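Hi all, posting the design record for the shared folder.

TITLE: backbone redesign
STEP: 1 of 1
STRUCTURE INPUT:
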């Protein structure tokens, strides 16, 4: 049974309760630094390939899709394994493992000399990744039941804030000091985030007690997958990630089309455009989290997906950079509501003792969406105008909305006892 964390209280077993406020604050900072590290350099990989690694125009789409997707492929394969181990050893150790490993890989990204070396290091990053999912799972396990929607919305603002400042810092660092400086700053940020987890973050008592149980990876994961509510969550996370990552490799080149150059100005403008979704997330995520708490997580998810889809249907009408930026912002206002509500649904349909496996499987679905999204985006961008690729994103959001509507009544029957 889940243990509600209240400061100054103890669990039935006599263990001290986790201070959920401290966990929320520290992990918010950690997630912010992790996301800022990612968005300060990864969205600019096409230009990194072009300018620093000397990849020609005839191969740029291939290597862009490859270096984006290989990280998500590695993560999608490894996330269930790390999630199952998290139920055994605790999410805190998983966050520390991922944080240290990612700090090392970001430093290596600043040292690569060829596209193939970049591909290999990005693959390694995928294998050892998982800091943000582990942090999210730690928060969801320590939050009181009545605060889950609000708390996950607050955590989403950490993701959004990092997504804002990352591209801005990355864009200006790249213009002033070269793109390798962004990777090294990301390594330092991830190291700091990991240090905070080591010294400040606590675990729930039931996670510590679960370490005595023997791990049966395949049996445990197959049992988790049979949870129909969890399968719904995995599907929704996959679709949202496909939409997000389908766009990401195209934005920098789309901005270059509007500006007519791939120089410093394009890098800076791309940083601002990438940041708009983060700004929208800061504004909207806590609001949508509260709406989910009050009106129902499934109903709120249905609203945000429908609105995000409708907004993106206007992409073919875009004729200027600022029109594109406005649509990106408006879309971000609604997409920001998907994650806190999907995560809250996850906490309803899974018991606490399988939360690590559940988050691992959801992360796997999310990362597999990260494999599909860049590959599909790069492929479509090779023969379709980018505005029509973005129009297809709107259609996918609307399909996700229709699926949510079909599953709405069933989800209420699959809520796990707490």
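Okay, here is what came back for every position:
SEQUENCE:
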């Amino acid at each position: 049974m889940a243990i509600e964390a209240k400061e100054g209280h103890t669990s039935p077993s006599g263990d001290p309760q986790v201070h959920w406020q401290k966990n929320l604050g520290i992990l918010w900072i950690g997630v912010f630094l992790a996301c800022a590290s990612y968005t300060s350099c990864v969205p600019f990989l096409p230009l990194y390939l072009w300018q620093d690694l000397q990849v020609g125009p005839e191969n740029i789409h291939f290597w862009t899709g490859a270096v984006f997707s290989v990280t998500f492929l590695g993560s999608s394969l490894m996330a269930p394994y790390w999630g199952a181990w998290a139920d055994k050893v605790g999410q805190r150790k998983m966050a520390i493992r991922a944080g240290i490993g990612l700090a090392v890989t970001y430093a290596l990204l600043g040292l690569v000399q060829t596209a193939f070396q970049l591909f290999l290091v990005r693959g390694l990053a995928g294998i050892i990744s998982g800091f943000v999912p582990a942090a999210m799972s730690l928060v969801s396990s320590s939050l009181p039941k009545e605060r889950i929607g609000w708390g996950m919305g607050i955590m989403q603002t950490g993701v959004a804030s990092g997504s804002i400042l990352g591209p801005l810092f990355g864009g200006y660092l790249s213009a002033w000091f070269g793109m390798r400086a962004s990777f090294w700053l990301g390594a330092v940020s991830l190291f700091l985030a990991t240090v905070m987890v080591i010294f400040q973050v606590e675990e729930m008592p039931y996670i510590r007690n679960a370490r005595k149980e023997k791990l049966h990876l395949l049996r445990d994961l197959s049992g988790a997958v049979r949870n129909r509510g969890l399968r719904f969550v995995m599907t929704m996370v996959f679709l949202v990630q496909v939409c997000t990552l389908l766009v990401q490799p195209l934005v920098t080149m789309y901005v270059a089309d509007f500006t007519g150059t791939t120089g410093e100005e394009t890098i800076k403008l791309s940083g601002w455009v990438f940041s708009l979704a983060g700004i929208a997330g800061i504004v909207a995520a806590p609001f949508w989290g509260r709406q989910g708490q009050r009106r129902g997580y499934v109903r709120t998810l249905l609203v945000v997906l429908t609105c995000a889809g409708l907004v993106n249907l206007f992409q073919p009408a875009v004729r200027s950079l600022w029109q594109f930026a406005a649509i990106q912002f408006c879309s971000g206002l609604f997409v920001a509501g998907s994650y806190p509500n999907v995560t809250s649904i996850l906490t309803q349909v899974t018991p606490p003792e399988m939360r690590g496996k559940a988050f691992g499987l959801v992360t796997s679905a999310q990362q597999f969406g990260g494999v599909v999204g860049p590959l599909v985006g790069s492929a479509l961008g090779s023969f379709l105008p980018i505005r029509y690729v973005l129009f297809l994103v709107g259609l996918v959001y609307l399909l996700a909305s229709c699926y949510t509507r079909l599953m709405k009544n069933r989800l209420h029957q699959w809520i796990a006892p707490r």
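COMMENT: Residues 228-259 form the longest helix (32 residues).
Let me know if anyone wants the other runs.
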